[in-house]
Write a structure and sequence with these properties.
The protein starts with 11 loop residues before the first helix and ends with a helix. It has 404 residues and is mostly helical. The longest helix is centred in the middle third of the chain and has 28 residues. Helix content is 75%, strand content 2%. The strands form 2 sheets. Strands 1-4 form a two-stranded antiparallel sheet. Part of the binding-protein-dependent transport system for D-xylose. Probably responsible for the translocation of the substrate across the membrane. It is found in: Cell membrane. This is Xylose transport system permease protein XylH. Keywords: Cell inner membrane, Cell membrane, Membrane, Sugar transport, Transmembrane, Transmembrane helix, Transport.
C-alpha cells in the first residue's frame, strides 16, 4: 500500500463532507455542529440585546467559563471510559474550603495552600478509583457517596459562619482578576496557536506519508490553520478592546491543549480510548484496566479541585456548598454538549471548552434578557437532552455498533 492524501485535490469539499458523515455514522459528532450552534446562539442573543457581543460581556464570558470548564475537562476523561463522576462539584467545593482554611485561618502561604488543595483533589480521585477499580463498586455509586461525604466535610470545615472571605489581592484572587493589558500579548499568542497547529499537523503528515499511511493534503492543513488563526485573532482583538487577555482564559486554554495532547499523542491516551471501546477487548490488548480507571478519576478529581479554586477566585470567597448539584450538571452538560459521548470512546478535551461556551452563553444571554432562573434551568436541560439524544442516535448506527 502506498501513501496517499486523505482527500484528493479536486474532491476536497466532497471528501470533507464524506469525512463528516463518516464521523457521525461512527458516533462521533465532532466540533462542527457545536460551533455552528454557538454561532447561531450568539447571533440570536445579539439581535435580542446588542450588549451581548460587546467586548465587556465577551471578556467576562471568557473568565466565567473557566471554573466550570476545568471541571468539565476532568469529566471528559471519565466519560471516555464509559463512566461518570458525580462528586466533582463537591470535590471542587472541598478543595476551595481546604485552601481557605489553610490560608486564611491557619496562615499557610497561598501557594502552598493551593498546591495542597489540588493534591487533595487528586487523592480523592484516587480513592474513588480504588473502590471502583479494585472492588468493582460502580463508579456512579462511589462518586455519589463522595458527593455526600465531601459536602458534609466542607460544611464542617467552614464552621458556623459558613463563609470564608479570601484576600482580594492574593494569588488565588488574581487567577480571575488579572489581565494582560499589553495588546501584544494577546496577538502574540493568537499567532503562536495556529503556528503550533500547522507545525504539528505538517509533521504528522510527513510521518504518515513516509510510513505509506493515509495523510491529509497540505492545502487542507493550510485551510484548517487559517480557520484557527481567524478565530484566534478575532478573540484577541475583542479581548484587547476591554482589558486585554485574561490570565484565567490563558490557563484554561493551555490546560485543555496539554490534556488533548496527552489523550491523542501518548500511549496513555490510547489506552483510555481503548478502554472506552470495551473493557474485555482492552484487557486482551494488554491495557492495565485497573490503573487506567484509577488514573482517569484522579484526573477528574484534580481538575475538579482546580475548577473549585477558580470559582472561589471569581467571588473571592468560599461558602457552604449549596450549588454543587448545579455545578455538576453544568459541567456534565458542557462535556456532553461539546461532543463527548456518554457511552465512552468518543470525545476530546476541546469538547469541554465548546460545551461550556454554549452553557455560559445561554446563561449570559438570558441574564441580559432578564429571563428568570427557573426558565434558564429548563432551557439548559433541554439543550442537554438534545445533545444526549443526538449522541444516542449516532451510537445506534451500524458503523458505530461495529466499532463498539
Amino acid at each position: 500500500m502506498t501513501g496517499r492524501a486523505l482527500v484528493p485535490g479536486r474532491r476536497h469539499v466532497k471528501g470533507v463532507l464524506d469525512d463528516i458523515r463518516r464521523r457521525l455514522s461512527e458516533g462521533e459528532r465532532g466540533a462542527l455542529p457545536v460551533a455552528l450552534g454557538l454561532i447561531v446562539l450568539w447571533a440570536v442573543f445579539e439581535i435580542l440585546n446588542d450588549n451581548f457581543l460587546s467586548p465587556r460581556n465577551l471578556s467576562n464570558l471568557s473568565v466565567d467559563i473557566v471554573g466550570t470548564g476545568l471541571i468539565a475537562v476532568g469529566i471528559v476523561f471519565v466519560l471516555l471510559i464509559g463512566e461518570i463522576d458525580l462528586s466533582v462539584g463537591s470535590v471542587g467545593g472541598l478543595a476551595a474550603a481546604v485552601f481557605a482554611v489553610l490560608n486564611v485561618n491557619q496562615g499557610l502561604p497561598e501557594w502552598l495552600a493551593l498546591v495542597m488543595a489540588v493534591l487533595l483533589g487528586s487523592l480523592i480521585g484516587a480513592l474513588h478509583g480504588f473502590f471502583f477499580a479494585r472492588f468493582g463498586v460502580p463508579a456512579v455509586v462511589v462518586t455519589l457517596a463522595g458527593l455526600l461525604a465531601w459536602n458534609g466535610l466542607t460544611l464542617y470545615l467552614l464552621g458556623q459562619s459558613g463563609t470564608i472571605n479570601l484576600d482580594s489581592d492574593g494569588l488565588v484572587a488574581k487567577l480571575t482578576s488579572y489581565y494582560f493589558n499589553d495588546i501584544a500579548v494577546a496577538y502574540s499568542l493568537a499567532a503562536l496557536g495556529p503556528a503550533v497547529f500547522f507545525l504539528a499537523a505538517y509533521r504528522d503528515r510527513r510521518r504518515r506519508k513516509a510510513a505509506a499511511m493515509p495523510y491529509r493534503p497540505l492545502h487542507e492543513i493550510v485551510v484548517r490553520t487559517a480557520a484557527i488563526a481567524v478565530v484566534a485573532f478575532a478573540a484577541a482583538y475583542v479581548l484587547n478592546q476591554f482589558q486585554g487577555l485574561p490570565l484565567a482564559l490563558l490557563i484554561f486554554v493551555v490546560l485543555v491543549a496539554a490534556l488533548d495532547l496527552l489523550l491523542r499523542r501518548t500511549p496513555y491516551g490510547r489506552t483510555v480510548y481503548a478502554l472506552g471501546g470495551g473493557v474485555e477487548a482492552a484487557r486482551r490488548a494488554g491495557v492495565r484496566v485497573t490503573w487506567v480507571r484509577i488514573s482517569v478519576l484522579m484526573v477528574s478529581g484534580t481538575m475538579a479541585a482546580l475548577g473549585g479554586l477558580f470559582l472561589a477566585s471569581r467571588i473571592t470567597s468560599v461558602s457552604q456548598p449549596s450549588g454543587t448539584s448545579i455545578l455538576l450538571l453544568n459541567a456534565l452538560a458542557a462535556a456532553v454538549i461539546g461532543g463527548t459521548s456518554l457511552f465512552g470512546g468518543h470525545g476530546r478535551t476541546w469538547s469541554a471548552l465548546l460545551g461550556i461556551l454554549v452553557i455560559q452563553s445561554l446563561s449570559s444571554g438570558m441574564a441580559l434578557l432578564s429571563v428568570e432562573s427557573a426558565l434558564q434551568f429548563m432551557i439548559t436541560g433541554g439543550v442537554l437532552l438534545a445533545a444526549v439524544v443526538l449522541d444516542s442516535l449516532a451510537r445506534r448506527s451500524p458503523n458505530s455498533r461495529g466499532r463498539t
